[in-house]
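Q: Here's a chain of 330 amino acids. Please give me its 3D structure as tokens.
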Amino acid sequence: SPWGSSYDSLWSTELSLRLGEVGLEGDLHYWVNDGLMAFFFFVVGLEVRRQFDMGELRDRRRAAVPILAAVGGMLLPVVIYLAFTSGSGATRGWGMVMPTDTAFALGVLALVGRRCPARLRAFVLTVAIADDIGVLLVIAFAYTNDVSLPALAVAALLFGTLRLLVRLGVLSRPPLILLAVAVWVATAESGVHPTIAGVLLGLTVSARPPERRDVERATATARLFREQPTAQLARAARLSVLGAVSRNERLQYGLHPWSSFVIVPLFALANAGVRIDGELLSRAAGSPVTLGVLFGLVAGKFFGIGLTTFVAAHPKLGRLPLTIELPPVF
């Protein structure tokens, strides 16, 4: 369009965060893809952890099928892509047919709404997370030449410290938020895609059903506030009610609207800037890369995930437990 240049100039605008000699620099496109999307993957990690603690994946064997499905959905597209690009200089691009776009996969489920069974959502979430972790590892070690092991070690140390504080029952938000931001910064500096930090941080926040004693304590505090409505009792009642619900669910409730209605649309907008004209289409029509990507993503993903699920869960083959029937998977 005539305004295409303004789109490019907007997303190439530089934004830096600096404290003394230390800082992070990048354009708006970088901050959306590597910064805001870390929040999105944090929320996805929270939801997956809830499924492991309270949902359909409490039986760890049930996670085996979607994880294997994710592996199949990564490998078959690569095989198809390499078959189309064999003998050309484009074989190195095999990694671009591996990802399953988590944001848009969940967006499709959101369009289905209430008709989407909870078990199917859990299956898709697990496939998407396993796929993302696998692809991010491939990007880090196959497509990145300057992985910083010291920065990666710092990220691991900070992540371990955060896990320790959570296990010790630390409830104060500031130190946990600072550690989470530090993990993201260290991961970004290591050369590994920082969204993987969001996934791992989300998976650390456990979920649990409300315990009876916590609910009774919250009820008693609320009753005291009704009898004596003071600011101190109002705060105590609020904290006791929130404390009856797991931190995982509280974070999901607070962050989900931002993730779904702000971050994902911004991500779509920031990555939609592809110039399409007659020359591009004519070159793409005869390109082995086009055919490799098209058949790899459309056919490879479908058959890779579907057939792997069928084999892994078939009563006479893999015999692994599947939480849903096969038709909804396809």
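Q: Can you summarize the key feature?
A: The longest helix spans residues 28-53.
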